[in-house]
Amino acid sequence: MNLSADLLRGYTDSIILARLREGESYGYRINQAVNAISGGSFEMKEATLYTAFRRLESAGLIVSRWGDEATGARRRYYRLTEAGQNRLREDLAGWEDTKHLLDLLLKEDDHE
User: Fold this and answer.
1) CATH match for 3-106 among 1.10.10.10, 2.60.40.10, 3.30.420.40, 3.30.750.24
2) Quick check: pTM over 0.90?
3) pLDDT mean over 71-75
4) Tell me: the pLDDT tens digits for 18-34?
5) Angle, alpha carbons 33-39-42 (nearest 5°)
6) Which one-letter DSSP state was computed for residue 69?
7) Can you tell me the distance from the alpha carbon of 44 to that of 9, in angstroms, rounded to the nearest whole number?
8) 78 with 18: CB under 8 angstroms?
9) According to the model, what pLDDT value does residue 1 have?
10) For residues 17 and 66, is the Cβ–Cβ distance under 8 A?
């Protein structure tokens, strides 16, 4: 397992919140978007995705509703709450700090 996969898994909640920033969606569509955006290099396991949905909903960061599809399986739709939008802003700021720190730690040291 490589570092980038481990790192991405640590950001599952943030990734879901970011996808929901675009508007209400459901699990399969979110996973397909993540897969497409990553060029196929990252896909969330279904269990991981739905565990994250439960965690985010329990924390008040998202809300859900059952769709009224006339055909096919009924879907559960999720959307961000105001608290979820705030958390996403915090997560994005934290990610910028993390990227900056990693850049400092991983670049060649000119001070030796």
Assistant:
1) 1.10.10.10
2) no
3) 82
4) 999 999 999 999 999 99
5) 70
6) -
7) 8
8) no
9) 42
10) no
